[in-house]
Specification:
The chain is of the alpha+beta class and about 350 residues long. The chain is built from eleven helices and 14 strands. α2 links the parallel β1 and β2. The longest helix is centred in the last third of the chain and has 16 residues.
Length: about 350
Amino acid sequence: MTGRLPAITERRTREIAGATLTDFSPAALLSAQEPVILRGLAADWPLVAAGRRGPKEAMAYLKRFDAGRPVVGYTGDPAIGGRFFYRDDFSGLNFDARRVGLSDYLDRIVAHLGDPAAPSFYLGSTDLDRYLPGLRAENDLPLPPPVEGRDPALASIWIGNRTTAATHYDMSNNLACCMVGPRRFTLFPPDQIANLYPGPLEPTPGGQVVSMVDLRAPDLDRYPGFAEAAATAQVADLEPGDVLFYPALWWHNVEALGAFNVMINYWWNDAPAFLDSPMTTLLHALLSLRDRPAAEKRAWAGLFDYYVWGDSGRPAAHLPEQMHGDLATLDDRAARRLRARLLERLNR
């Protein structure tokens, strides 16, 4: 049984119409912990204005800022329908990735405008300041400076023709600014991971694990749990100038729907910069915990509840301060010391 599920298009992402900078507070967005569309927040950006005049105008505007550094361009055969994924036999990825000149790649896209059988062209997650320096001076959200000990937001640009980024999650909070061409996000909460049937940890089409379910035609015989995920899904349809916020670890399928599309996004974490990636912990848990007996795993789950998932101050609260050791509140120095101990253990 295959086919698009009606429930996916029935739930719409909450939105604030005619959003202005007074509606824009990253702290408030984070506190809600749910996606929201800020309609028109970036509507007056020059890149949006250039896109309204047409794809060639938008490309000419982008070329003004090309630093001449090679970028990674993804190119797929017309047969993939714009969906960057795995080959049908899962022997590898269904596209070619190679270093290209940004302006040259834009010329390749423009050469296929209006071609119904165009190759799929995609520049994903390209650092804005490194590859298009100066563009943010004219097109930028006034994000507050990072709290002490936290990294600033990372600004990236996404460019291509009609493409689909398969359903995946990011480990950072996201502000996705639709610049040129309409874009559709289909979002799923983190607790739907099992019903989204994640693919391998590597290789991945874009650096993150993707769902094996094709939203264009979900195969419910192979992935029956997706029906439950679909009931929780919400859709965010964006026009140029709209901004979508969604929290870290929300799954999202992203469809770029115009002949030429551009998005700028900001990633940031509300956590100290010295913390390691939780993915490192997950990989180590596969090595150390996954294949232990079930009773042991249940016991370790209790230990993690106590030391990690619960109140961070509780494990040391009953101990004299001089005995806190690794249980003390982390800072940069303590994190370095703990990391060194872990490396020593791993290198035995």
